[in-house]
Amino acid sequence: LFENELNIKKIKDLLYHFPYRYIDKSKINKISEIDLNSNNYVQLKGKIISFAIEKGKENSKRLIAYFTDETGYIQLVWFQGIEYFQRLYKKDEEYIIYGKPSLFNNIISIAHPEIETPEQKKSIFPHILTPLYPTTEKLKDNYVTSKTIHKIIENVLSTYIQYIEDTLPENIIENYKLMPYKEAIVNIHFPENHEKLHKAIFRLKFEELFLIQLNILRQ
């Protein structure tokens, strides 16, 4: 699927499948802080206290989970995969959820939220910005989402980072104050902060143009 949909054939192709943007998930919001007028996504930490299945129009169904923190309650809603999600998530277990809140029947709800346990949220590479990766409909149909690619790249980097060597001469790196190549690859996928992300992007753009210039000179 990676080869057919994204032209990813090798480890290097995967590491050069860069995010198209990043989400700052460093802050945990409170339910009481949700501002529906802001149109923003929120990240909440709390527990599911109960589930319910409600019927809609034309025999449709939706799964509702009642989610709470110490400041209030909201509903989490799924219109598909009802049995799967009801088995997957447990009552009274702590979760971190992410999604866009809206108002339905005067109740704040988040449809199809991203959900992780605090343990799942931990990363081998500490980062404050979460990458979003290009994907395709066929990949999504096979449950390969941006989040899936995120985890695969994390596993690949942790395994192969020791083999990543710098590609530019030391004097070029020093003269232009470039971030080391290995550090740039890590921070393009898992930025420790905004400054390191900018330095990683600059390093990789510099290298691309530098190699183009070398090729022009060679020709």
Short description:
This protein is α+β, with helices and mostly antiparallel strands.
Structure description:
The strands form two sheets. Strands 6-7-4-3-2-5-8 form a seven-stranded mixed sheet. Strands 1-9 form a two-stranded antiparallel ribbon. The protein has helices at residues 2-6, 11-15, 82-88, 118-121, 137-141, 146-160, 170-175, 181-189, 194-218, and strands at 21-24, 42-55, 61-69, 72-78, 94-99, 101-104, 107-111, 114-116, 129-132. The model has no long low-confidence stretch (mean pLDDT 92). It is of the alpha+beta class and 219 residues long. The chain contains nine helices and nine strands. The longest helix has 25 residues, at 194-218.
Task: Describe the SSE topology.
Elements (H helix, E strand, L loop, with lengths): L1 H5 L4 H5 L5 E4 L17 E14 L5 E9 L2 E7 L3 H7 L5 E6 L1 E4 L2 E5 L2 E3 L1 H4 L7 E4 L4 H5 L4 H15 L9 H6 L5 H9 L4 H25 L1
Parallel strand pairs: 4-7
Antiparallel strand pairs: 1-9, 2-3, 2-5, 3-4, 5-8, 6-7
Helix pairs in contact: 8-9
